[in-house]
Specification:
By secondary structure, the chain is α+β, with helices and mostly antiparallel strands. It has helices at 2-8, 46-56, 74-90, 100-106, 123-126, and strands at 31-37, 57-68, 109-118, 127-135. It has a 4-stranded mixed sheet. 22% of the residues are buried.
Length: 136
């Protein structure tokens, strides 16, 4: 779907089909903006993936993210923690209970804008983090 849209928009897009933890074949400090959507939950080693993001992002670059993860409500968190072991097996490695803002900050980013909310649907699966970050 993404390839068809890129061709239709006549935008120069290069797809890099690989594991998020593998070295990205891009030069250091070569990217202005990185967008991550609905992926941090299923990356086996998120800190390793963030090493690559930090490496290729320019010093004044921006990270834009939309992810689902750990909710603030203790009753929802309890369900996220209960469901995650089985959910990982049926959901491609998806962790329902990852605290996305903490992952981003631990990777050396400063979050400059953050909106959180539940989307429609089952609360353990729909708490979202949407925002912007930059390198510290």
């Amino acid at each position: 779907m993404a390839r068809a849209r890129a061709l239709a928009a006549q935008v120069d897009v290069e797809f890099l089909p690989q594991s998020a933890e593998d070295p990205v074949p891009l030069a250091n400090s070569s990217i202005d903006t990185i967008v991550i959507t609905w992926t941090l939950c299923s990356i086996a080693n998120a800190p390793k993936a963030f090493q690559q993001i930090r490496r290729v992002l320019k010093a004044d670059g921006r990270l834009i993210f939309v992810e689902h993860g750990r909710a603030p409500d203790p009753s929802v968190v309890a369900w996220q923690d209960r469901l995650t072991p089985a959910w990982k097996r049926i959901g491609g490695g998806c962790h329902l209970n990852r605290k996305i803002d903490e992952l981003i900050e631990a990777a050396g980013f400063q979050i400059t804008g953050l909106n959180t909310r539940y989307l429609r649907g089952s609360r353990p699966m729909t708490y979202t983090y949407q925002g912007f970050a930059q390198l510290k």
